[in-house]
């Protein structure tokens, strides 16, 4: 969903593991498959740890794996079909590390959806290790869904800056807003350095802020032209971007952030803003990686 004229999604992939969080992810993915009119693929990663090797003989483990996989995928498919009966749904169990498998699946999908915490998550944890690693490693768009979201606010929030790297996130956010018929809040956060005291320096910083805000919001023009039906709220806040986006998430259905993938090493990690929003947001978060 990158720049205007880009390709439409070919498939949505969602990870399932039998947890409440993963079923919430399946429901979200089913809704998005219906909105975008693409097939939904449900994947269950079967991981055999060292303790399982010691506890179960090969034959017993194989049988247990088959039965567990079948049940998890059957339950997940039932959630998807109950949510959206008319979508095309396929399922598959794949043996291996969940992060590696989901990352590989992301190459064949326009969107990868995961729950915020799986069965292995610690009580009270905000974000599970699998969802964080997938969001940090997978290419394309990764959507992290939190369970228990029922209130519809009718608003999507997208983080905005003055760089080219926010373009894919803008494209995704505008398209989601158009599909849902909701408004889009384009949020630009500016934090003034704490050590600025001299009036002349403060004035220069304010002028710089104005210039950067203008440059950032100029990026909205082509997207507004392509999606004239989407109401856009320009929101400028003098606070750290993570706090601004987390605060805005309380009244949003979805927060969209970019992840600046520059080079082979940086493409494997999340930026500080994306990571902070994933940990603190009170709604579903979409991390859209720039090429």
From TrEMBL:
InterPro entries (alphabetical): Rossmann-like_a/b/a_fold, Universal_stress_UspA, UspA
Signal sequence range: none
UspA domain mapped to chain residues: 12-146, 156-289
Family per similarity comment: Belongs to the universal stress protein A family.
Protein's name according to its UniProt entry: Nucleotide-binding universal stress protein, UspA family
Organism field: Thermostaphylospora chromogena
